What does this fold into?
Amino acid sequence: MKVFVTGATGYIGFAVARAFRQAGHQVKGLIRNPEKAALLERWEIEPVVGNLDQPESYREAAEACSVLVHTAFEASGRAVDLDHQTVDTLIGCGERGAQPKLLIYTSGVWVYGNTRHQTVDESTPLSPAELVRWRPAVEEKVLSAEQVRGLVIRPGCVYGGRGGLTGLWFQGAESGNLTAIGDGQNHWAMVHVEDLAQAYRAAGEVGYYGEVLNVCDASRLTVREMVEAVARATGYRGSITFKPVEEAAGEMGPFAECLALDQHVDAFKARTILNWQPNHRNFVEEVALYYRSWKQHQAG
It folds into this structure.
């Protein structure tokens, strides 16, 4: 297969691009910075230098591929509009070049909002956190598109490697201010970045479409359990701060609500349809290793 990946040097995108290439597929990766081309070439991934806000810079490369994977997300005031624009462009690519095309869109479990003690699956009505309230509309655009075969993946909170959200805890411990949002009794749906990448690879190979897939492990650890494990792994000697959501929102905006969500998310559908299984059991079990890996990534 020929695969096109947006955000190919990003946290999720790089892992996804490598997973497809290591399975023998031809991979084109979209990057903004030409200086990162060597990184992709080192992993046998063809760099495509371009920008999401300049569709003409990547449209031809995408049209030549049969699988389009959108993982890029620009953290700016234009983020939502740009995501819509990129999805529109990728859908349009389905009318030309290699056909039929599978478009895999990256969403996330925050669209479920607080699930509390209820375990949710893909059939559960959505109650998105404010920060991602716009995302279900993009999901629906992907799933209803006629020019491509659309698939939506909703990853849990991603960890491993350069760190994802758990990197905030490692950074806090090193700076002497280890902080979690909320009282710590909430649960995060988690998934290791390499396990997540294998789910994308499997989805591309199976060609499954027209549906949503949750991708997370079966761990049910509380945030308190995870952040206390971080303290042990990093040798943190201070007290852990559990900051009230309202207070954190004054500093972080709607992102604070997302960090305090209590979620139990089921990924049975992905395990069944994709024959996918996470190889990493949970964040706490090898937290010291994840910390060392994070440190190496910070060092470059």
Remarks:
- The chain has a mean pLDDT of 97.
